[in-house]
Specification:
alpha/beta; about 45% helix; flat
Length: about 475
């Protein structure tokens, strides 16, 4: 990864969310940031103010007799101790759409270029301030939906994952270096003689470390992306009521008219630190209504891609053909069966359901009595985190699908090394696979990367970050 700043052109963008707010920030980064700001700012002499200060003044239009555009506070941050390791100016203006766009247009007309998505963070990476995994953690931090997800992203941003990866890469390069010395200078007595046993020991050590990281992957990915959770059931069994209770707000329309929910409703909710992507589906039943039928088809599709299914049954009525169809449809899914309306007399044979449709988790709930929600939250947490949610503040956790894939590739290469040594292959042959593992680990931190990968990753960022 580059360790010195490179002379790029100067970029600018609005760094705050679009819309009306208290303030908006126009960010400028590059060698001409100060020069551009001085053209449109009237206040203190920016060349003379200290770095990391904020300064009162006005933004003016120099092409219109310095007519005032806005009253602002201008932050001055000088390289190299900035986010991008370049000079950065941030213009804190009033949060109206028109005034913010006017300030940005003035910046662009006076020498800056509009930043591409994620270009500020890309420059932070290219200039050596952060590595690639830390760059991705920036977006994870922005997108965090629970406190645990925030802690995991912050941990990665602090460089804990990077440190673990680089430690493994150093072990690999030490072995590879000794192999090369022994191949090129067999007469050199000072070199450590790399035997098959030594390489095997190192490969097994690295394998164990990779497996330890991968063991956190399921939990980490759930914390980062959430669980796709489909709430299913025939019409009028209480699906929308359950959604509203989990959200703690009346988001879904609740009536006693079957078919009220005609489409899939998507919401996120924090359940014991785990983000659930809740999908309140239309009730699955045979219908002639074209709009409702589309909703039913989407409900079936939601079940197929769900990580978790919450199947709601009306416990005050015997099983219907539609209930049986859903029990069959979700048999192979990770599911919890919710026996709703338990404030009424029970008419379901629970033991028979378990015998015929599998021994799923069952929870008694009642929308009227507002009970069962805490039990449901605890059950979901136990289903996916049998040992509880690990501390994300200080432990290394893999949350990114790209990182998981690269770790798995590295693990496969290391396993090939172990198998090759077991088959009696010479070390100069199996070292090729060890080199592949080194490259795969380097792709996580960006110590080895290509321009196409950079473009794909940073295109996912918002403009201004």
């Amino acid at each position: 990864m580059p360790l010195m700043t490179t002379d790029y052109d100067t970029i600018a963008a609005i760094s705050t969310a679009p819309g009306v707010g208290g303030i908006s920030i126009v960010r400028i980064s590059g060698s001409d940031a100060m020069k551009i700001a001085k053209k449109i700012y009237r206040g203190k002499d920016l060349d003379k103010v200290a770095t990391d200060t904020i300064n009162y003044g006005h933004i003016v239009d120099p092409a219109n007799d310095d007519s005032r555009v806005d009253e602002v506070m201008v932050s001055v941050m000088r390289a190299p101790k900035t986010y991008t390791k370049e000079d950065i100016i941030e213009i804190n203006c009033h949060g109206g759409i028109q005034v913010t766009n006017k300030v940005l247009q003035l910046v662009l007309r006076n020498g800056a270029r509009m930043a591409e998505p994620g270009e500020f963070t890309k420059r932070a990476f290219l200039n050596g301030r952060i590595d690639l995994s830390q760059s991705e953690a920036v977006m994870d931090l922005i997108d965090a939906k629970t406190d645990e997800a925030r802690k995991a992203a912050l941990n990665q941003l602090d460089g804990n994952l990077s440190a673990a990866i680089r430690k493994m890469r150093q072990k690999i390069v030490d072995v590879l270096a000794n192999v090369e010395v022994n191949i090129d200078y067999p007469e050199y007595d000072g070199a450590e003689v790399v035997t098959s046993k030594l390489m095997l020991d190192k490969a097994q050590e690295i394998k164990a470390e990779i497996e330890k990281l991968l063991a956190t992957a399921q939990q980490g990915k759930v914390l980062r992306d959430g669980l796709n959770t489909a709430i299913v059931g025939r019409p009028n069994v209480g699906k929308s009521s359950l959604l509203n209770r989990l959200l703690h707000e009346e988001k879904a329309i609740v009536t006693d008219v079957p078919g009220t929910t005609r489409d899939v409703l998507d919401e996120y909710v924090n359940v014991a630190g785990v983000p659930l992507h809740l999908i309140d589906t239309a009730g699955i039943r045979e219908t002639e209504d074209k709009v409702e039928k589309i909703g039913v088809d989407r409900s079936r599709a939601a079940i197929k891609k769900a990580d978790l299914v919450l199947l709601v049954l009306n416990s005050s009525e015997p099983l219907t053909d539609e209930d049986r169809q859903l029990l069959d449809l979700t048999r192979d899914s990770k599911r919890v069966i919710l026996l709703n309306k338990t404030d009424l007399p029970m008419k379901l044979d629970i033991e028979k359901i378990k015998a015929e449709y599998g021994n799923s988790e069952m929870i008694k709930t009642s929308a009227m009595a507002e009970n069962g929600t805490k039990t449901l939250e605890d059950t979901i947490s136990q289903m996916f985190f049998t040992k509880g949610i690990a501390s994300t503040q200080n432990s290394v956790m893999v949350t990114n699908a790209r990182h998981i894939s690269l770790l798995q590739q590295a693990l496969d290469s290391v396993q090939t090394v172990i198998d090759g040594i077991g088959a009696g292959l010479p070390v100069d042959i199996v070292q090729i696979d060890l080199q592949s593992a080194w490259d795969d680990l380097g792709a996580i931190t960006g110590d080895s990367y290509d321009d196409e990968l950079m473009d794909q990753l940073f295109d996912q960022f918002c403009i201004g970050k």
